[in-house]
Amino acid sequence: MAKGFVRNNVNQFAFLYRLVDIAIIQFTWYFIILALGIDYNFEHFLLAMIATVSYTFVAEMFWLYRSWRAGALSEMLFSTVLSWMITLFPLLIFVFFAKVADHYSRVSLALWIMLTATSLCGWRAGFRLFLFNLRRRGFNSRNVAIIGLSDSGCMLAKELLEHPETGYRLVGIYDDRQPERLEETLRPFVRGSVEDGVLEAKAGATEVLFVGL
Fold first, then answer.
1. How far apart are CA 58 and CA 51, in angstroms?
2. Which helix (H) or strand (E) element contains residue 131?
3. Which helix (H) or strand (E) segment is 173 a member of?
4. What's the CA gap between 146 and 209, in Å, rounded?
């Protein structure tokens, strides 16, 4: 569905995602240390801070905090796990060159790596399901217009209509050709020519604009 995207939407929940990710990385490590009966000291805190900074940087590099409204869940989870795996390299470099390996239990590190990856993915999947349910009810939705009724444009329109959980609400289709060549389900959405669509987009009548190339 992302094909033909003219402008990528900023994720309005990006701050929440960052905040929850940081909390997961920090508190998972903290509770694992406590559960194993180990005293949480400065070395543990420092490792968690390095992980937090590294993960935030890597996640931004992979656009993890962009809008996944129309993205696949598998792609989002893959980017999440990949970001966390890459984050481990700075941690290993720190532990090796700072010669502090003796300060950290291998069991605690292994648990932290696995539980953090699981938690980062789990909360994303759950929150995505929550948002999908809201969007099916008409909340957190965006008005969408399509310019161009090529084959890809028609396919995109059908996907928007068949997947209300994305929150993309089709409000108009603009094309210079006759609407009679369209399927009956799409004809009611034809609002005018390509020029009309461009003018309405400039006027802010639609929040998201797709071009069917």
1. 10
2. helix 106-136
3. strand 168-174
4. 6
Task: Output the six-digit token pair for 32.
Answer: 């694992």
> What confidence tier does 3 reach under pLDDT thresholds 50, 70, 90?
very low
Helix, strand, or coil here: 5?
A: strand
CA angle centred on 18, ends 134 and 29, rounded to 5°: 115
Q: Give the model's confidence band at 32: pLDDT under 50 very low, under 70 low, under 90 confident, else very high.
A: very high
Read off the pTM: 0.72
Q: Which residue in this structure is represented by tokens 């959405």? A: 189
Distance CA 111, CA 119 (A): 12
Task: Name beta bridge partners: 190.
Answer: 173
Residue range 120-135, pLDDT digits in tens: 999 999 998 898 887 7
Q: Which long-range contacts (CB under 8 A, 24 or more apart) does 199-206 make?
A: 200/145, 200/172, 200/174, 201/145, 201/147, 205/143, 205/145, 206/143, 206/144, 206/145, 206/171, 206/172
